[in-house]
Design a protein that fits this description.
The complex is a heterodimer.
Chain A (H helix, E strand, L loop, with lengths): L6 E6 L5 H7 L2 H10 L1 E5 L11 E7 L2 E3 H13 E7 H6 L9 H12 L9 E5 L9 E3 L6 H12 L11 H7 L24 H4 L16 H10 L4 H10 L5 H10 L3
Parallel strand pairs in A: 1-2, 1-3, 3-5, 5-7
Antiparallel strand pairs in A: 4-6
Chain B lengths: L15 E8 L2 E9 L6 H4 L5 H7 L8 H15 L6 H32 L4 H4 L4 H22 L8 E2 L2 E2 L5 H26 L12 E6 L11 E4 L4 E3 L4 H4 L19 E2 L2 H8 L5 H10 L3 H4 L4 H24 L15 E9 L2 E10 L2 E8 L1 H22 L6 H11 L11 E5 L4 H10 L5 E4 L10 H10 L5 E4 H6 L12 E6 L9 E5 H6 L7 H8 L2 H5 L1 E6 L12 H15 L1
Parallel strand pairs in B: 1-12, 5-8, 13-14, 13-15, 15-17
Antiparallel strand pairs in B: 1-2, 3-4, 5-6, 6-7, 9-10, 10-11, 16-17
The chains are: A alpha/beta, B alpha/beta.
Chain lengths: ~260, ~575
């Protein structure tokens, strides 16, 4: 084993496993990925996993049980760099939408009834930075192959990964799409972090926001624009909330403050 | 006190696991656990529009995201009476083929094959099987490519919507898919021969009920409006609950399912068992060549069945592309006005029957019920692991139990995150039944049922224990004879645990006591008893799940009325425990 290779661990908390699967979906690059780095742990791909010190831990999924809190803290202790990959790890995922604890408890009961779980206690879904410090974020539902490979190559080469500080609209313009907002469709592109290459709009469908909110997005402007287009305020709030996880609270605070 | 813990690989906890507990010569517990926390997806979409639901609910699982997409769309179109043009249906089917190829090739080559050729993972296996590993990756990539071209992305593509597609693939893209599928055929034949000829061990083998969608028209396929069972029974899509009977178990956030109180299996092996005879062309020939009675009883043949489906899917692709290309026009998304409706969508995900049930009121999602294949397989996974574990224990091969359970769980292809090594075998401390009894008592005071024949010496122990317990007014006790007279005696009680008291031949020292699920007694020919199968047939699945056997190893069951000293000592021990 070449010890100069960075030691990397890929971990999955609660989610759809889509980000880990996407890494396996890098078929043409997969053997290279395994050669460029010393993959110490990747439960989906291999069985001889080791839990030791790491240069980089990639964590997907949100935290939804007490056991996962412990596991996550252990990963943080072992890793020099922790990266949140995917929507669930970065914002808490779809499942983080019940921000009200009472509502969450009621829903838990509606799905699982009164059976008391013996194996591990559930907690409200949160992104991993609710419990540990996170060095880098790679959003997406799931992450995109190009974005991941770019990120991974820089990380393995020892350079800090590039950020994507712009919304979906930037890719959308490069792709020469018609603006769907102009056609009266509820597109969330202006609010959403880029990385997908505006895939929905390329298919004539409005952006659903599955990369999560982009830093510095102008929520107020989008909200009133959609209202002007005739959408109901509650509906607008709901579609924005769908893929924004726990980050949505700051989003809506902004809306309140900037009310014209 | 003896406590042996067979050490397991570092990452056993992972996101799922299976564990077996051994008490003496008996397996007293097998648990298939999903450690992932709850996501409450079925509640998240309530109050959302049908379109938002179609975008959100497939996020349950990346590995079956296309199956979820097709299932939720079918449910919504049933609920909202949307009829789509043939081009749309054909493209959806083609997209589904992509997922089957991607998922099956990943499973058979990357997750399953390393076990059979002795490598820890596929990357290591590449040192010896470089060509197979590389072409299998190409094949998986091809499946992904199909999903991307039609769905918009590898995973969670948003292009399929209620009423059609946002954008249709071009003729060139479709023609490329067809020609590429034909190019793969030599490797596909290699794959199907490889996996059909693998030397699958004969343990565990046992009968089960298989369930899958009936595509209708005597065709093989991956969706339909009816569920067909290997018993010949059928359920219309909206009556799916007649099959699934979901219930919550305390050791997992995945619900379990049973059919008529019995576990059943879904997946590629279920499809091949139920509708495999309908396979035509090359896949039909392969089916005739390899299918035999072992496929009906041995879950390890899931791997062979998946390989057969890879062939079926590859054969279907050129047909589908030709049919799609007949329709030159791209139909617009079908609009609908309906604001109310209830719809169920049945789809075969790579790992089995997937059911989406969505109810719409005032234009918004009102109620959602989603039943995943792994939830349905959970009970059979536990059962087959139990059978394998008990058999190995009987044969003195305790050290092989863990690896075999791994093999069984992985064969079911539960989902990738659960497919890495994850089995655990542990020795129970002596007198473990006392701890288990404490656990059981937490779920309400039990009803005891004395079973056995007092004319056969030690076999009278169960009835005698029951009679002793009956002297105490606060304990509910029944006898075998009571139930023979009135079988409804305990039927109304659906919550309290049922504990049968009997002598059981565990092949242990006389007087050994063990508390084990009643199922295990029923599954194990050497332990079973003529009365128990009759009683268990009367139970609901909930009751059966909550029924146990407190068994004592007899010294003798010859004719006579004397109970042996060790059994008498064990009875006193049990009485002391139960009366305290």
């Amino acid at each position: 084993m070449n010890n100069n290779k960075p030691k990397i661990g890929i971990y999955e908390l609660t989610g759809c496993a889509g980000d880990a699967l996407l890494i396996l979906d890098c078929e043409n690059e997969l053997l290279d990925i395994f050669q460029a780095a010393d993959i110490q742990s990747f439960l989906m791909a291999k069985s001889d996993n080791i839990d030791g010190d790491l240069d980089v831990a990639l964590v997907e999924g949100s935290v939804t049980t007490e056991r996962e809190i412990e596991e996550l803290k252990d990963i943080r202790n072992r890793a020099k760099i922790v990266v949140a990959i995917g929507l669930c790890a970065t914002v808490g995922g779809l499942q983080a939408r019940f921000t009200d604890p009472k509502e969450w408890k009621e829903n838990l009961k509606k799905v699982y009834g009164d059976v008391e779980m013996t194996h591990t206690k559930a907690v409200r879904s949160k992104p991993i930075d609710a419990y540990i410090n996170v060095d880098f974020y790679l959003p997406g539902c799931p992450i995109s192959k190009d974005q991941f490979l770019n990120f991974f190559t820089r990380l393995v080469g020892g350079s800090p990964p590039e950020k994507y500080p712009h919304p979906v609209c930037v890719s959308c313009k490069y792709n020469e799409n018609d603006c769907l907002l102009n056609r009266g469709l509820p597109c969330l592109g202006p609010l959403t972090a880029d990385g997908c290459g505006s895939v929905c709009i390329n298919h004539n469908l409005p952006c659903v926001g599955c990369w999560g909110p982009v830093e510095g997005a102008n929520l107020t402007s989008e909200f009133y624009l959609l209202k002007d287009k005739g959408f109901d305020a509650e509906y607008i709030k709901k579609i924005i909330a769908n893929y924004s996880g726990t980050k949505i609270t700051t989003f809506f605070d902004q809306l309140k403050k900037e009310k014209p | 006190m003896k406590r042996i813990s067979v050490d397991h690989l570092a990452r056993v906890e992972g996101n799922g696991g299976i564990s077996a507990t051994i008490d003496g010569n008996t397996i007293t517990e097998v648990k298939f656990t999903i450690n992932e926390g709850p996501r409450l997806i079925e509640r998240l979409t309530v109050g959302r529009t049908p379109e938002e639901d179609v975008s959100m609910s497939p996020r349950i699982c990346a590995i079956c995201s296309i199956s979820h997409k097709n299932a939720v769309i079918r449910a919504m179109e049933n609920a909202l009476s949307v009829k789509v043009p043939p081009k749309v249906t054909l493209l959806r089917e083609l997209m589904h083929m992509g997922e089957m190829i991607e998922s099956h090739s990943l499973h058979v080559y990357y997750l399953a094959l390393p076990d059979y050729v002795g490598f820890p993972n596929a990357i290591a296996m590449a040192s010896k099987y470089k060509l197979e590993v590389e072409i299998a990756l190409e094949m998986k990539n091809f499946g992904n490519h199909i999903m991307k071209v039609i769905g918009g992305r590898y995973i969670h593509g948003e292009n399929p919507v209620i009423g059609g597609f946002g954008k249709f693939p071009t003729q060139e893209e479709l023609a490329w898919i067809k020609s590429r599928a034909i190019q793969f055929m030599p490797f596909v034949f290699k794959t199907v021969n490889l996996f059909c000829e693998l030397d699958y061990p004969d343990c565990p083998e046992d009968e089960t009920v298989y369930a899958c969608c009936d595509p209708g028209d005597d065709k093989y396929g991956y969706w339909g409006d009816e569920i067909l069972l290997s018993t010949g029974e059928k359920f219309y899509r909206d009556d799916y609950k007649g099959l699934t009977n979901e219930f919550v178990v305390s050791h997992s956030y995945a619900k379990h399912s049973r059919y008529k109180g019995k576990p059943y299996s879904v997946g590629a092996l279920a499809r091949v068992n139920v509708i495999g005879e309908r396979l035509k062309k090359e896949s039909g020939k392969i089916y005739k060549k390899y299918f035999n009675n072992r496929w009906k009883r041995n879950p390890l043949f899931h791997n062979a069945a998946q390989a057969l489906e890879i062939l079926y899917s590859f054969e279907r692709i050129p047909e589908l592309v030709d049919e799609i290309l007949q329709y030159k026009e791209d139909p617009p998304i079908v609009k609908y006005n309906k604001k109310e409706g209830i719809g169920t969508g049945l789809v075969e995900a790579p790992r089995g029957l997937l059911i989406h049930h969505h109810e719409i009121k005032e234009g918004l999602v009102h109620h959602v019920d989603i039943i995943t294949p792994t939830a349905q397989n959970a009970e059979d996974i536990e059962r087959y692991c139990y059978i394998a574990a008990q058999k190995f224990l009987d044969e003195g091969k305790e050290d092989q139990i863990r690896d075999r359970m791994d093999l069984v769980v992985r064969a079911f292809d539960p989902c990738i995150s659960c497919s890495a090594h994850m089995a655990e075998v542990k020795r129970a401390p002596s007198e473990d039944w006392k701890n288990k009894m404490n656990e059981l008592m937490k779920g309400g005071s039990p009803i005891f049922i004395g079973v056995g024949n007092p004319d056969q010496s030690d076999d009278g122990a169960g009835v005698q224990l029951a009679l002793e317990l009956r002297k105490h007014k606060n304990i509910d006790v029944l006898l075998e004879s009571d139930i023979e007279e009135d079988e409804n005696l305990w039927k109304n009680d659906t919550v309290r645990p049922l504990i049968f008291l009997d002598t059981v031949d565990f092949k242990e020292k006389p007087g050994k006591v063990a508390l084990l699920p009643l199922n295990y007694v029923l599954n194990n020919a050497t332990l079973s008893h003529r009365f128990l199968p009759i009683v268990s047939g009367l139970m609901t699945y909930r009751q059966l799940k909550n029924a146990y056997m407190l068994g004592i190893q007899p010294e003798s069951i010859d004719n006579g009325h004397e109970i042996s000293t060790p059994v008498r000592k064990a009875m006193n021990d049990v009485l002391t425990k139960l009366l305290n």
